[in-house]
Amino acid sequence: xxxxxxxxxxxxxxxxxxxxxxxxxxxxxxxxxxxxxxxxxxxxxxxxxxxxxxxxxxxxxxxxxxxxxxxxxxxxxxxxxxxxxxxxxxxxxxxxxxxxxxxxxxxxxxxxxxxxxxxxxxxxxxxxx
Amino acid sequence: xxxxxxxxxxxxxxxxxxxxxxxxxxxxxxxxxxxxxxxxxxxxxxxxxxxxxxxxxxxxxxxxxxxxxxxxxxxxxxxxxxxxxxxxxxxxxxxxxxxxxxxxxxxxxxxxxxxxxxxxxxxxxxxxx
Lengths: 129, 129
Known about the structure:
By secondary structure, chain A is of the alpha+beta class. Helix content of chain A is 29%, strand content 46%. Chain A has a 6-stranded mixed β-sheet, with helices on one face.
C-alpha cells in the first residue's frame, strides 16, 4: 500500500469502529499519547486516551441505528503524520423517519511502528444547505 | 528555537495577522498547496490558496474592533508537520458593548524550507458554558 492508501485505511478503520459501535475497535484506533484530542460536533474538546474512549462508550451506549457514510476524502501526508479530511454524512433512523446531517471532520493520524494511530478527531456541523 | 517554539511562533504569526487584519501577512502565513483547508466557525470548508485568502479579505473588510486572545495552546510535532490546538477567546466591541465568544481551533503547519506554513485552520464554536 502507498502511504496515501494506508492513511485512508486508518481513516476507514475509525469509521468502521463507529458504524459497528465497537468500543474494542475504537480502543485500537486511538493513540495512547496524552496529547490526543477529540471534538465531537458541538461538544467541548476532550483530551487524553481514557476520557476520549469514555466519550465513545457514552455515545455507543446511547445510539441506535446510526451510520456515517463518507464523501470528499482527501489526505496530506508528511513523514509519520497523516491528515485526512472528509465529510461525514450521518444517517439516523428515528421514530419520525430517517434523519440526515452533515459534518466536516479533520482527522490526524501518527504512524507508530507499522500502525497509523488517531491523535485528533475534530468534527463540526456543516451549515444547512 | 526548539521545534515546539517554532510551531508556536507560526501559530502566533497567524493570530497576529488576524488581529492586525493584515491580508499581506495572512498571505505569508498560508501554504500555497492545493490541498490546504480553512473552516471558519459555522462555515462550509474552503479549500485552496486563492479561495482561502479571499475569505480572509471578506472577513477583514467586514470587521472592526475584533481581537483574539489565545489560551490552552498545545502542540504535537512530527517530522515537518506541526499540529497546534488552542482556544480562541474572541472579543468584539459593538454598539451594545463588548461581546465575547469562544472557539476551538485545530491548526496544522508544514515546514517548507525554513518556514512553517499553515495548511489547515479548523475552527468551531465551543458550547456556551
